[in-house]
Amino acid sequence: MVADSNTLLYVLVRPRPGDFVYSEEELQSMEYDIVAARESGAAGIVSGVLRADGNIDEVATKRLVDAACPLPFTFHRAFDTCPDWKAAVDSVTRLGCDRLLTSGCASTAIEGSIRLREIHSRAQGRFRVIAASGVRA
Questions:
Q1: Number of H helices, E strands in the chain
Q2: Are the C-beta atoms of 61 and 75 separated by less than 8 Å?
Q3: Inter-residue contact 116 to 104 (CB < 8 Å)
Q4: Cα–Cα distance measured from residue 48 to residue 30, given in angstroms and rounded to the nearest whole number
Q5: Is residue 16 part of a domain?
Q6: In the chain, which stretches have pLDDT less than 70?
Q7: What is the reported pTM?
Q8: Within-domain flag for 2
Q9: Is 20 within a domain?
Q10: What is the pLDDT of residue 114?
């Protein structure tokens, strides 16, 4: 990992494409990758884990948050697949995530703009909401 002093490098940690339900072996690999990124100078970690029912796996994600400490942790767009966005916001809050990367549970942030406002409101400043998907300068 190489970055100059003016670049903040956030590392996405994900063991494979597909769903966000991970085995114990995959979680251990993710923890290892997070520690390696942290020790290599990453500015933050982007990741997250879901349960088979589609809700945020707080126990597994907490392991990743703890491995990232003291770096900021961003919960990624797995959030957008959760069946209950309000419960997912509450999970992100309980986990102590610094940021949430989301399209507002839509294909693009423009399509999810109303939900993005609702998510921001529910977060009550406890974490930053970052609009993702289709966002251009």
A1: 4, 5
A2: yes
A3: yes
A4: 10
A5: yes
A6: 1-7
A7: 0.91
A8: no
A9: yes
A10: 96
Please tell me the total number of residues recorded for the chain in this structure: 137
Instruction: List strands edge to edge, sheet with 10-12.
Output: 10-12, 44-47, 73-75, 99-102, 128-131
pLDDT for 48: 97
Q: Are the beta carbons of 50 and 78 closer than 8 angstroms?
A: yes
Domain extent for 46: 10-131
DSSP-derived 3-state class of residue 129 = strand
Secondary structure (3-state) at 89:
helix
The predicted structure's pLDDT at residue 134: 83
- Whose tokens are 């549970």? That residue is 105
Q: Are 77 and 103 in contact (CB under 8 A)?
A: yes
How many C-beta atoms lie closer than 10 Å to residue 58's C-beta? Answer: 16
